[in-house]
Amino acid sequence: MTKKFLTEHQISFEEHNVNQEPKYIDYLKEKGFRSVPVIEKNSNPIINGFRPDLLKNLLAQ
């Protein structure tokens, strides 16, 4: 749902799929996350999970 939202609103993103790139599981765990998706901006987490309310904030940026 998050990818669909970003694509529909023409927000560019870089995807790291934990199934295809398991090294990102450790990366997310080190940052304290236990679920995906995690949206980062400038390597800082800003959204965890599908949060349309917070994703809409990206439209204003």
TrEMBL record:
It comes from the Bacteria. Pfam families: Glutaredoxin (PF00462). Residues 1-42 form the Glutaredoxin domain. This is Glutaredoxin domain-containing protein. It comes from Liquorilactobacillus ghanensis DSM 18630. The lineage of its organism: Bacteria, Bacillati, Bacillota, Bacilli, Lactobacillales.
